[in-house]
Amino acid sequence: xxxxxxxxxxxxxxxxxxxxxxxxxxxxxxxxxxxxxxxxxxxxxxxxxxxxxxxxxxxxxxxxxxxxxxxxxxxxxxxxxxxxxxxxxxxxxxxxxxxxxxxxxxxxxxxxxxxxxxxxxxxxxxxxxxxxxxxxxxxxxxxxxxxxxxxxxxxxxxxxxxxxxxxxxxxxxxxxxxxxxxxxxxxxxxxxxxxxxxxxxxxxxxxxxxxxxxxxxxxxxxxxxxxxxxxxxxxxxxxxxxxxxxxxxxxxxxxxxxxxxxxxxxxxxxxxxxxxxxxxxxxxxxxxxxxxxxxxxxxxxxxxxxxxxxxxxxxxxxxxxxxxxxxxxxxxxxxxxxxxxxxxxxxxx
Length: 349
Description:
Order of helices and strands: HHHHEHEHEHEHEEEHHHEEHEEH
Strand order of the largest sheet: 1-7-6-5-4-2-3
Largest sheet: 7 strands, mixed
């Protein structure tokens, strides 16, 4: 049975979090001389001489309304990568604990584990990039604290069978971290709707993909209030800067535009899915619920270089298990996709 206090590192449970100047102050005031800021102002104008809200209250309130969750179920990170790193540090003792990774998948799970000296156990996805549930559960050890599941999966693009995820949630006493960076492009509901059902579930989302704000570096983690409280406890005090909070709020006011962008990207994805298999260099296009396609080609290294020579950058994923001779191609604009097709049609091995 899942008990958060049995999972979290004892030093995290016992530590006293950093208290910022804005944490200490409650109420209203006209003079702020508590945080060693420059009260003369900022060369950038606006209010950038002041530290941002360390708890991002206004932004979380708006996100909560859009996502149908409570503000206390939201953690905001400097990209989802910060969320991944903090989750590992929250529950994994360096040199002692482990995570379970399901390749081919997003590479930062492994990078963060290596950085934090967390052992990485792996169970490879099946040939159709689904979870071999029995193998996963059989690979769980007493020191296994997290299982990362990316759905839709990067770099394969497919959504993971929800029944497989349910089985793992029901039978694993650690954290199941479900990375939904590409969920907006999929015709499936988010697992944020099931947070109350699964206390060991953490859902990651991002502003980098559908929202088109990769440059802001803003990631979201949704979980129980107890998990979020611990993440807030160990994060840097001002991890989300003022301009990011302001620009994200501005974008959230125009969520109608999000729908149009998603529709256009999905439409272009479907056109590419039909056009690419007609080219001699393409052997297979894998089904995708994301804003990219995994494409098996006759010569990935050669085609990758050919595209570079034409000024087109794609991602060569041939080194990943199950992705031999595969390129990952993000969905571009209509004009960019047409140039891509033209370039591939001119490739000769």
